[in-house]
Write a structure and sequence with these properties.
This protein is an alpha/beta fold. It contains 14 helices and twelve strands. It is about 40% helix and about 20% strand. It has a six-stranded parallel β-sheet with strand order 3-2-1-4-5-6. A six-stranded mixed β-sheet has the order 7-8-9-10-12-11. Helix 6 packs antiparallel against helix 7. The longest helix is centred in the N-terminal third of the chain and has 16 residues.
Length: about 400
């Protein structure tokens, strides 16, 4: 997208205070002068919802009760679970932050832990974590989970850890839950606009047809819109511009697309040999993504091996040439896991996904594995709906 042209008046929402907060957090973290005791962290896909939830909530917790006219004492750090070299892959985050004059080089990306020798952050039993947009701290990170704010269904193996510090509600956007928590006390225009933009993107502009929006999303979006004095016409422009940036992935390679929005889960975690499943979400028809490289199977297999997963699923979401929203679901399985993959597919074919029109992609050496994809007629079923189905499959086969 052209980063310069924009009809939405973004400059009205620039905030020197918020810019200063991000700079202070970066300076403190990278100088090792301050030992962070508390971090807000989003999920491993590090999408717009996770990114905005973590910076907005850390800003609120750090500024609550402080005079923020001069210098903000950063007490809570927003950490992003993605490396600095990958942030450009999230095109809508890039777009929004540029428009709000936020310096992406001052965000606390995951690889800064190593670069600035801050292993004390992730290897510290005393570290307090606040999880936003997910509910599992994940491997290789020590410390205590103090609070969870999430809009995903809780994974079966995590249910026993739930307590009254968990705010889990299946709304369209986790930013809705953050807005409910902080928007009455926060006046910062950049923070409020980021929350509003994210809610609009996650709920496809509050459109009920996509079955993502809930009454609470509508209520919070209206409240934010009112606080920011944004007209309905401006709200529409905001949605259209960020959505356009989100789907502008023309410059990304197949490997970039897979990395840009990826999460993984272990099925049968309590058994000796669980099945690790990776799910990438891409914003392109599967056939178009395959055409980006000469040998897509090698790219898929290398990606799978790097992440040590048994099966790789790719969820495709895009608009067709008639402007209709479409979904496809693809499966890549190396030969040794094909039987498992076929059982999973059989289960999913009888689920709410409505998988039809199976197409198998021919592979030079069939021994290497199987690659095939379906049209997913139920376009309302995103990854958030697919993951509980995978856990149901796991239970079903057990």
């Amino acid at each position: 997208q052209n980063a310069m042209s924009s009809r939405f008046p973004f400059s009205r929402f620039h905030s020197p205070v918020f810019q200063q907060f991000l700079k202070s957090a970066f300076d403190s973290f990278t100088s090792s002068k301050l030992n962070p005791q508390k971090c807000v962290i989003g999920n491993e896909a590090a999408d717009l919802d996770s990114n905005v939830c973590s910076i907005a909530y850390a800003f609120y917790l750090s500024t609550k009760g402080n005079d923020i006219s001069n210098n903000i004492p950063v007490s809570v750090f927003p950490l992003h679970r993605v490396n600095s070299k990958e942030w450009h892959l999230r095109t809508e985050i890039n777009f929004l932050h540029k428009k709000l004059a936020l310096d992406m080089h001052q965000f606390l990306w995951w690889d800064l832990v190593e670069q600035y020798h801050r292993d004390d952050v992730i290897e510290n039993d005393q570290m307090e974590w606040i999880l936003v947009d997910h509910h599992n701290l994940g491997k290789g990170v020590k410390g205590r989970v103090m609070e969870v704010i999430d809009h995903h269904e809780v994974n079966p193996e995590d249910k026993e850890r739930m307590n009254d510090q968990w705010n889990v509600e299946t709304v369209g956007s986790c930013c809705t839950l953050i807005a409910e928590r902080i928007a009455q006390q926060v006046e910062d225009r950049s923070v409020l606009l980021l929350l509003l933009a994210t809610i609009l993107i996650d709920t496809v502009n509050l459109d009920e047809e996509f079955k993502k929006v809930t009454p609470k999303d509508v209520e919070m979006a209206s409240m934010l819109q009112e606080k920011l004095c944004i007209s309905n016409e401006e709200r529409q422009l905001l949605f259209e511009e960020v959505q356009k940036a989100k789907f502008d992935v023309s410059s990304l390679s197949l490997d970039d697309l897979l990395r840009s929005d990826y999460k993984e889960w272990t099925l049968g975690a309590k058994t000796e040999k669980g099945t690790n499943v990776g799910i990438a979400s891409i914003r392109l028809p599967f056939s178009d993504s395959l055409r980006k490289v000469e040998d897509p199977v090698t790219v898929l297999e290398n990606f799978r091996k790097e992440r040590h997963v048994d099966l790789l699923l790719v969820m495709c979401a895009f608009e067709d040439e008639n402007g209709e929203f479409r979904r496809e679901l693809a499966f890549w399985s190396p030969a040794k896991n094909c039987a498992e993959c076929e059982k999973m597919v059989e289960f999913l074919q009888s689920s709410i996904l409505s998988l039809n029109n199976k197409r198998e992609v021919s592979i030079a050496t069939r021994e290497s594995g199987k690659l095939f994809y379906f049209d997913q007629e139920n376009v309302a079923a995103s990854r958030k709906k697919l993951v509980p189905l995978l856990f149901q499959f796991d239970k079903h086969r057990a």
